[in-house]
């Protein structure tokens, strides 16, 4: 599978990733046979409900699963180097330096007992042998860069003295302290006000342009990645169900689950006539993933395929122009339903 | 901010003084009101301060000398007055002045209580501080290791030993360890050993080593359990994931980020423990025959020497209050959220 | 859960194993002089030696009541005090019964009675000085005795002198009544002579003259209640450093002159004394050799008892002396039907003496079965048994039933028995009596009272005893000194009974005995006097108002490395004056 723009070698390439957690009740297959890639300067949005495996994927890339708890197979190639099976300390040295991560809730993700500045300084000094003074100067510059007003005095503030948006800016500053080539943002705006969300997203976009990093944004909300992502991967039950350019996903979505996500997306550009439509039902157990299509129990259109949905797992396949989906519905059916039943309601 | 800190401290100290008075009143009541309710008379009280086969006259004279015929409030008033202006005590050929603050004057030894307390304080202080260092080191490191290796053999073993530490009384472990390490092996000093730190720091530590270890054994158990619980919770916090995401080595993640977060509840308990111990590590001092405040308290109670009991109770209460104040101030140092709240 | 419990068990097991190995390890023992062994120091001197030097280490589980000779009232303290104070007369430092002999100390010879025993004269030896070099005069002895009568300043001391001396009315000691003329009580015709004038004749006055209260105190150096902080020594040792209730040490007193003192050898160079030492630790340190003397002399702790008795090498270094203490039960004739002598006799006969002994811990830690009031080591004690308990010591049921019939209560009766709640042995005694008396139908109900007020408010308070039917009162008595007066006067004299309570005698109200006591007290001939004490003992027993239980014994550990070790019967413990350190 290659990305829509082709040419360059991807900076991050994930191949056939499987992340399984053995538990007393059975093996939890959080991620099952997942492949994707991101190039430098590009942004990939990974979208799905909680439990779809998107966060597990990002933690696997960062090597943040607790040793011994996760059973990871497949390949995670960072600039061509496979991180799976690599010495944990070698992965640690890449963390924060070549790949960095922004977390969902900046209040709990920052240590409450240390000042914002010292936490950035710490992140910088792990990978750079500089004095505290130099690192502090760097931290102030970073805070200024991410738009913290009066950074010279705010650098000594504690996380609880920052507003939610400022904290996330500070988190971003921390993540960017070593100019990472891969930035993973896990629900970077979920805990924030709507207006602040837009600012943070703008900031990420600006910074990406500036640093030319590969960015992975993980979200349950398609709206977040609408303007930001070049490509979008929709995940369900530990697998990719649709993958294409962002434009394609929004203008020509092919998978019933994506339709559902679009339906439940809040839209700012038009007044809503109906209430948001959450996708009925809940995701399947990852221990006993049902035979056939995992989305089958929640799919409104499974009857159109006869027994196929319950007996056979749909292949993740290219349906044209690098647009991948995993669905048994025929092309005509998908076009008909999208054009007639879904799009008019959005 | 410093101004508010100062007012805070002043307010707390004032509350502490009030508390000390209440403690003194209760102690006084325990010694005077309760025996009275049980049918005691000034003479029966006084009969505890005379030798056996004392005549009725001796008992009466003693009751009179100790002021037991006065109403209880007057007696308490005398004691209170001593604190502010001092008090005079007849010891036969002359009168002894107990200068303010006079915490009392022993019925038995004819000594003011305060100098006695100050004389014994260094022993208790040495015992408590040395043991505290040991139990903090042992408790926190064992607790941390147990938390990181939860469910491992190490975890189970150390928690088992911790259970033993909590369950075994110190007069048992103390005497056993004395018998074994001091008398059998000759590694440590015999019971009753004590050299002031000002004289020789090496002798000081040698003499107190076994009491420290014994006392610390009991406390480290509790601290290991607390640390373990705290670490298990803290290590699941988001900021630990952040610290790892920065690429920090695991030790730094555990110590600087994990432990720091888990320390707050430990600080609370530590404040209480150290405050209680400074008031007298009663069992340890008794097992090791150390002449500290706890021993003093036991001796005072055995001899019904009320002024001593009052003095040592006030002292103990003072340390508990002080330790809690220090803990509260330390909270602000540890947790910046407290400072601005 | 299980694994935790297992670990605890292992840990506890390890601790016990440690304790056991600690026990087993400290054997070693005194070999050498083949004469050591269990009870070897009871009647002879072990490791006799004249070698000087060394320091004797002493521990006290509690504290002294006072180091002031005028105020101390413990046997061990009197025993020990002879190291730094010389009273007019003293008990002879000799093994066994010889220790009950009084010998002159400060005085040249024993007291000379005149006026039929109402006046006693003592001549002081010459050349005796205080530690500061000042010579001791008769005035200092008189002053010491007078000051000790100020019970407001010295509440702890014995009160014999103010009872017997013919002091002027209203005399309150030299501090409060300094100008009062005391020549009616004590006179000092010259610097070497002190004369005591008594209210009544008292034949055994030498026993009072051996009280530490006659040890001289120089008026110029007297600091009243604070004198205990630095007692001026007249003995071979003086206080070097004295931290009240913590520790003190004695060093040689260079002003003491061996030529003036035939009784003291002064072998060690000094004594180190530590107070408030954990009682169990004292036993361990004695066994280990880290300590020479447990000064209280009351014997080992229960924890060490079986250990010492069970290990032959430890037992060989222990002594089990009888002491001048009787554990007994008062039978109150003020409580019906015990006003009838036959009902009292029924109790004497029905008592299981073996079980009584077991209640106190058996023959070693408890003592020997008693049939008299005075223990055997009191001079004049006569061995008799008016109410034989049968060959097995379990009581004579036939005699008991006969007595009950004679009393008019053939099926028994009910009464109460009082004991001190804090004393498990007394509780066991009460239970033992409950069982043995039930065999003849006498039903006892147990009543526990706090020991602090046991005599003042409860078992020693006659109206309370009567109102609450305390027919039996578990009791005990130890003599201040080993003679009939010291032992009997407080427990068989009906005149010490106070209606307001406070006396340990509530049951002995025999006018004839009071008369006998007065006669014995006035008798100046020791041999005659001693026989009279024995008669009193028998007379009281005839009335069946005291049920003797056991003559108390203690188990003492001999400190390692001590020389001249022997038990002094006078003190019921090792003689502290004679000991040396090898």
Short characterization:
Chain A is α/β, with parallel strands linked by helices and 346 residues long. Chain A has helices at residues 54-62, 88-94, 106-109, 116-127, 132-145, 151-154, 164-175, 194-211, 222-226, 246-251, 256-263, 308-311, 331-342; strands at 12-23, 26-38, 43-47, 71-78, 81-82, 99-102, 182-186, 214-219, 231-236, 239-245, 316-318, 324-326. The N and C termini of chain C lie far apart (56 Å).
**SS element count, helices of chain A:** 13
- Which parts of chain A are unreliable, with pLDDT below 50 for 5 consecutive residues or more? 1-7
CATH architecture annotation name of the largest domain in chain A = 3-Layer(aba) Sandwich
Q: How many individual domains of chain A?
A: 2
Helix fraction of chain C? 25-40%
Subcellular location (chain A): Cell membrane
Protein name (chain A): Oligopeptide transport system permease protein OppB
Family (chain A): Belongs to the ABC transporter superfamily.
InterPro entries (chain A): AAA+_ATPase (IPR003593), ABC_Ni/Peptide_Import (IPR050388), ABC_transporter-like_ATP-bd (IPR003439), ABC_transporter-like_CS (IPR017871), Oligopep_ABC_C (IPR013563), P-loop_NTPase (IPR027417)
Description of the molecule:
The complex is a heterotrimer of chains A (346), B (341) and C (582). Chain A is of the alpha/beta class and 346 residues long. Chain A folds into two domains: 40-64 and 91-98 and 181-346, P-loop containing nucleotide triphosphate hydrolases (Rossmann fold, 3-Layer(aba) Sandwich), CATH 3.40.50.300; 107-179, no CATH class. Chain A has 13 helices and twelve strands. Chain A has helices spanning 54-62, 88-94, 106-109, 116-127, 132-145, 151-154, 164-175, 194-211, 222-226, 246-251, 256-263, 308-311, 331-342; strands spanning 12-23, 26-38, 43-47, 71-78, 81-82, 99-102, 182-186, 214-219, 231-236, 239-245, 316-318, 324-326. The radius of gyration of chain A is 21 Å and the shape is globular. Chain B has two domains: 3-110, no CATH class; 114-340, MetI-like (MetI-like fold). In chain B, a hairpin with a 4-residue loop joins strand 1 (87-90) and strand 2 (95-98). The model of chain B has no long low-confidence stretch (mean pLDDT 86). Chain C is an alpha+beta fold and 582 residues long. Helix content of chain C is 30%, strand content 18%. A six-stranded mixed sheet of chain C has the order 14-18-13-17-15-16, sandwiched between helices. In chain C, strands 8-9-10-1-11 form a five-stranded mixed sheet, with helices on one face. Chain C has a four-stranded antiparallel sheet with strand order 4-5-7-6, with helices on one face. The longest helix of chain C has 24 residues, at 2-25. Chains in contact: A-B, B-C. Chains B and C meet through helix 3, helix 6, helix 7 and helix 12 of B and helix 1 and helix 7 of C. Chain A: Belongs to the ABC transporter superfamily. Chain A: GO terms for molecular function: ATP binding; ATP hydrolysis activity.
């Amino acid at each position: 599978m290659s990305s829509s723009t082709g040419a360059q070698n991807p900076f991050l390439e994930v191949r056939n990733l499987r992340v399984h957690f053995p538990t007393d009740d059975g093996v939890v297959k959080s991620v099952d046979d997942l492949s994707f890639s991101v190039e430098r300067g590009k942004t990939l949005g990974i979208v799905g409900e909680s439990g779809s495996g998107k966060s597990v994927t990002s933690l696997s890339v960062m090597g943040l699963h607790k040793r011994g708890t996760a059973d990871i197979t497949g390949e995670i190639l960072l600039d061509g180097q496979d991180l799976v099976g690599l010495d944990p300390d070698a992965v640690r040295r890449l963390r924060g330096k070549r790949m960095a991560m922004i977390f969902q809730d900046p209040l709990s993700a920052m240590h409450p007992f240390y000042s914002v500045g010292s936490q950035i300084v710490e992140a910088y000094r792990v990978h750079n042998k500089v004095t505290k003074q130099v690192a502090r100067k760097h931290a102030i510059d970073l805070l200024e860069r991410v738009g913290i007003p009066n950074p010279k005095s705010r650098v000594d503030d504690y996380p609880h003295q920052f507003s939610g948006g400022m904290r996330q800016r500070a988190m971003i500053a921390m993540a960017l302290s070593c100019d990472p080539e891969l930035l993973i943002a896990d629900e970077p705006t979920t805990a924030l006000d709507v207006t602040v969300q837009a600012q943070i997203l703008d900031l990420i976009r600006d910074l990406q342009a500036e640093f030319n990093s590969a960015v992975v944004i993980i979200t349950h909300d398609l709206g977040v990645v609408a303007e930001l992502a070049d490509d979008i991967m929709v995940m369900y039950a530990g697998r990719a169900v649709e993958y294409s350019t962002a434009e394609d996903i929004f203008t020509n979505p092919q998978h019933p689950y994506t339709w559902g996500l679009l339906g439940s997306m809040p839209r700012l550009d038009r007044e809503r006539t109906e209430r948001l439509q959450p996708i009925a039902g809940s995701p399947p157990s990852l221990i006993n993933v049902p035979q056939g299509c995992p989305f089958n129990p929640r799919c409104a259109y499974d009857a159109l395929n006869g027994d196929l949905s319950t007996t056979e797992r749909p292949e993740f396949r290219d349906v044209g122009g690098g647009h991948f989906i995993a669905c048994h519905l025929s092309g005509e059916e998908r076009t008909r339903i999208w054009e007639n039943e879904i799009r008019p309601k959005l | 901010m410093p101004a508010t800190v100062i007012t805070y401290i002043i307010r707390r100290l004032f509350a502490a003084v009030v508390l000390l008075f209440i403690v003194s009143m209760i102690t006084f009541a325990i010694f005077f009101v309760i025996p009275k309710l049980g049918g005691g008379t000034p003479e029966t009280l006084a009969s505890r301060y005379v030798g056996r086969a004392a005549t009725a006259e001796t008992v009466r004279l003693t009751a009179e000398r100790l002021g037991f015929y006065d109403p209880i409030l007057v007696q308490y008033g005398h004691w209170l007055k001593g604190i502010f202006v001092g008090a005079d005590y007849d010891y036969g050929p002359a009168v002894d002045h107990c200068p303010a603050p006079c915490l009392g004057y022993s019925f038995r030894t004819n000594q003011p209580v305060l100098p006695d307390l100050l004389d014994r304080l260094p022993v208790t202080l040495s015992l408590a501080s040395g043991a505290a260092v040991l139990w903090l080191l042992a408790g926190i490191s064992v607790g941390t290791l147990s938390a990181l290796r939860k469910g491992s053999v190490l975890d189970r073993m150390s928690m088992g030993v911790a259970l033993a530490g909590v369950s075994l009384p110190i007069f048992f472990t103390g005497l056993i360890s004395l018998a074994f390490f001091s008398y059998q092996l000759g590694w440590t000093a015999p019971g009753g050993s004590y050299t002031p730190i000002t004289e020789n720091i090496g002798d000081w530590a040698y003499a107190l080593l076994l009491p420290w270890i014994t006392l610390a054994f009991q406390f480290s158990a509790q601290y290991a359990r607390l640390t373990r619980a705290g670490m298990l919770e803290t290590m699941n916090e988001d900021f630990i994931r952040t610290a790892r995401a920065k690429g920090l080595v695991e030790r730094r993640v555990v110590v600087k980020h994990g432990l720091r977060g888990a320390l707050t509840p430990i600080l609370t308990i530590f404040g209480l423990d150290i405050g209680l111990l400074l008031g007298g590590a009663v069992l340890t001092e008794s097992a090791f025959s150390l002449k500290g405040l706890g021993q003093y308290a036991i001796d005072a109670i055995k001899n019904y020497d009320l002024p001593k009991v009052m003095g040592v109770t006030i002292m103990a209460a003072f340390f508990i209050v002080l330790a809690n104040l220090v803990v509260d101030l330390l909270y602000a140092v540890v947790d910046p959220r407290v400072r601005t709240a | 859960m299980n694994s935790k419990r297992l670990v605890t068990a292992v840990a506890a097991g390890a601790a016990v194993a440690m304790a056991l190995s600690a026990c087993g390890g400290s054997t070693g023992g005194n070999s050498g002089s083949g004469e050591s062994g269990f009870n070897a120091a009871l009647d002879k001197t072990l490791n006799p030696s004249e070698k000087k030097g060394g320091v004797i280490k002493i521990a006290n589980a509690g504290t002294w009541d006072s180091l002031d000779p005028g105020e101390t009232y413990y046997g061990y303290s009197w025993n020990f005090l002879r190291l730094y104070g010389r009273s007019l007369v003293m008990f002879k430092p000799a093994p066994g019964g010889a220790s009950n002999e009084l010998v002159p100390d400060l005085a040249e010879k024993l007291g000379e009675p005149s006026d039929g025993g109402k006046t006693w004269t003592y001549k002081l030896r010459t050349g005796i000085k205080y530690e500061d070099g000042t010579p001791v005069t008769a005035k200092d002895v008189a002053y010491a005795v007078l000051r000790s009568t100020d019970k407001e300043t010295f509440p702890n001391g014995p009160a014999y002198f103010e009872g017997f001396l013919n002091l002027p009315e209203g005399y309150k000691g030299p501090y409060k009544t300094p100008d009062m003329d005391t020549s009616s009580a004590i006179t000092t015709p010259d610097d070497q002579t002190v004369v005591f004038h008594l209210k009544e004749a008292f034949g055994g006055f030498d026993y009072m003259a051996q009280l530490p209260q006659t040890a001289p105190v120089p008026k110029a150096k007297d600091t009243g209640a604070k004198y205990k902080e630095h007692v001026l020594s007249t003995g071979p040792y003086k206080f070097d450093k004295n931290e009240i209730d913590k520790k003190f040490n004695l060093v040689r007193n260079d002003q003491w002159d061996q030529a003036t003192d035939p009784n003291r050898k002064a072998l060690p160079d000094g004594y180190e004394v530590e107070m408030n030492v954990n009682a169990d630790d004292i036993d361990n340190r004695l066994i280990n050799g880290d300590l020479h003397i447990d000064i209280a002399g009351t014997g080992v702790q229960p924890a060490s008892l079986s250990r010492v008795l069970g290990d032959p090498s430890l037992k060989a270094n222990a002594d089990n002396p009888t002491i001048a203490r009787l554990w007994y039960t008062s039978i109150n004739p003020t409580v019906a039907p015990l006003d009838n002598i036959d009902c009292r006799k029924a109790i004497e006969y029905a008592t299981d003496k073996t079980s009584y002994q077991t209640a106190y811990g058996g023959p070693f830690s408890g003592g020997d079965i008693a049939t008299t009031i005075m223990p055997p080591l009191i001079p004049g004690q006569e061995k008799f048994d008016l109410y034989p308990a049968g060959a097995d010591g379990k009581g004579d049921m036939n005699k008991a039933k006969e007595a009950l019939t004679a009393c008019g209560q053939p099926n028994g009766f009910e009464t109460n028995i009082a004991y001190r709640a804090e004393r498990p042995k007394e509780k066991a005694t009460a239970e033992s009596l409950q069982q043995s008396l039930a065999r003849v139908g006498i039903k006892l109900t147990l009543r526990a009272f706090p020991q602090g007020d046991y005599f003042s408010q409860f078992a020693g308070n006659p109206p309370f005893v009567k109102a609450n039917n305390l027919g039996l009162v578990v009791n005990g008595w130890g003599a201040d000194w080993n003679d009939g007066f010291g032992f009997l006067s407080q427990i068989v004299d009906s005149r010490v009974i106070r209606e307001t309570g406070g006396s340990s005698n509530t049951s002995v109200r025999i006018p004839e005995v009071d008369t006998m006591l007065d006669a014995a007290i006035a008798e100046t001939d020791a041999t005659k006097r001693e026989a009279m004490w024995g008669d009193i003992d028998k007379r009281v027993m005839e009335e069946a108002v005291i049920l003797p239980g056991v003559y108390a014994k203690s188990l003492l550990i001999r400190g390692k490395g001590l020389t001249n070790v022997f038990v002094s019967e006078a003190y019921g413990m090792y003689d502290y004056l004679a000991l040396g350190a090898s």
